[in-house]
Amino acid sequence: MRIFWGIAGILALLLGMMGAILPLLPTVPFVLFAAFCFARSSERLHQWLLGHRIFGPGIRDWRQHGAISSKAKRLATVSILLVGGLSLFLGLPGEVLMIQSLILSVVLIFIWSRPTGQPKAANRAHQADPGNDTE
Hints:
By secondary structure, the protein is mainly α.
């Protein structure tokens, strides 16, 4: 099973990294799933991901507080609005637009209803000891 979780974690991390570049592919869910997989397959990869300067703070915020950073919330909102605008521009059928609007609205409600992540200073202090989950 460790091999399965390791492969799933690597694939999820690759998709998350692609999502950092491609506007339609989400980053955070894939990185969170990668952390979940690595926790079951490789303590070394799990600790590396938790200590990563880009991905680590978001994972720790989610694990400790169920929080999403305000920057991630803003980026998600802008991406969703761009996708909606592109769909309108492409003239997608009304049914598709309605379904897309409903789903993306629920996603936005979920994102904005989550607590906002800790300030960067708190994350930097935690980065010195990523194993400290007692905050």
